[in-house]
Design a protein that fits this description.
The structure holds two protein chains of two kinds.
Chain A: E1 5-7, E2 10-13, E3 19-24, E4 31-37, E5 44-50, E6 53-57, E7 65-68, E8 75-79, E9 88-95, E10 107-108, E11 112-116
Parallel strand pairs in A: 2-11
Antiparallel strand pairs in A: 1-3, 3-8, 4-5, 4-9, 5-6, 7-8, 9-10, 9-11
Chain B: E1 3-5, E2 10-14, E3 19-21, E4 24-26, E5 32-38, E6 45-49, E7 60-61, E8 72-74, E9 83-90, E10 99-101, E11 105-110
Classes of the chains: A mainly beta, B mainly beta.
Chain lengths: 117, 111
C-alpha cells in the first residue's frame, strides 16, 4: 500500500466548469476526510466520511460542492460551476477510525491543486 | 467555537538554538492535540500527539489545559527541522472526529 492517493494532482479549468477529484484512502481505513488549503493558511475542514456515511460537513461547503464515498472505499469531491475563489489545494486524508488500531493520526495524500482561470 | 491559533507565521532560529512554536486552542470539552509537519515537497504528516507524551525527532509538546496551549519545543534546532508546522485538535469525546488545524508556522533553521 503506497498510502493515500489523489488524482488528478493538478487541474486547470475555466470559471464555470465542473471538476471532480478522486481520493483512494489506505485500505482498511474507514474514515476519510477532505480539506482545502489556500496559500498561507492551514488545512480547512470540508467534510468527512465514516465508511459510506457522510457524518459532518462544513458550513463553508457551498451547495456547489458535493462529496461521495459510495462503497466506503474511494471518494470523489465535485465542484460545480467553479469560481476563481475555489482555486486551492484539495487534500484528502484517511484514518483507521473504528476499523483498527486508531491512534488519532490522519494520513494525508499529496493533494490536488485546482486553478480556476 | 473550536479554534486553533498559531500566532507566528514565520520563526527563524540559528542551528543549535532552542525552538518554541506556539499553539493555543479554544474548545469546549477535552480535545486531543496534535502537531503535524510538512517538509518541502512532502505530504503533511504527524509529528506527535499529546496523548502519547513522547519525544519525536527531539520535539516535545505539553498540553496545558489552564492556558489552553500546546506549544512545540526543541532544545537544539537542526537544519533539517526547517518545515511548516501545524497544530491541530480533534474532539472525539464530543462525538466528532473532525480535525481543526491552525494556520501554521514556518520554521527556518539557519546555519
Amino acid at each position: 500500500d503506497t498510502g493515500v492517493s489523489q488524482n488528478p494532482r493538478h487541474k486547470i479549468t475555466k470559471r464555470g466548469q465542473n471538476v471532480t477529484f478522486r481520493c483512494d484512502p489506505i485500505s482498511e481505513h474507514n474514515r476519510l476526510y477532505w480539506y482545502r488549503q489556500t496559500l498561507g493558511q492551514g488545512p480547512e475542514f470540508l467534510t468527512y466520511f465514516q465508511n459510506e456515511a457522510q457524518l459532518e460537513k462544513s458550513r463553508l461547503l457551498s451547495d456547489r460542492f458535493s462529496a461521495e464515498r459510495p462503497k466506503g472505499s474511494f471518494s470523489t469531491l465535485e465542484i460545480q460551476r467553479t469560481e476563481q475563489g475555489d482555486s486551492a489545494m484539495y487534500l484528502c486524508a484517511s484514518s483507521p477510525g473504528t476499523s483498527g488500531k486508531n491512534t488519532g493520526e490522519l494520513f494525508f495524500g499529496e493533494g490536488s491543486r485546482l486553478t480556476v482561470l | 467555537a473550536q479554534r486553533v491559533t498559531q500566532p507566528e507565521k514565520l520563526l527563524s532560529v540559528f542551528k543549535g538554538a532552542p525552538v518554541e512554536l506556539k499553539c493555543n486552542y479554544s474548545y469546549s470539552g477535552s480535545p486531543e492535540l496534535f502537531w503535524y509537519v510538512q517538509y518541502s515537497r512532502q505530504r503533511l504528516q504527524l509529528l506527535l500527539r499529546h496523548i502519547s507524551r513522547e519525544s519525536i525527532k527531539g520535539f516535545t509538546a505539553d498540553l496545558n489545559k489552564g492556558e489552553t496551549s500546546f506549544h512545540l519545543k526543541k532544545p537544539f534546532a537542526q537544519e533539517e527541522d526547517s518545515a511548516m508546522y501545524y497544530c491541530a485538535l480533534s474532539g472525539p469525546t464530543s462525538g466528532t472526529y473532525k480535525y481543526i488545524f491552525g494556520t501554521g508556522t514556518r520554521l527556518k533553521v539557519l546555519a
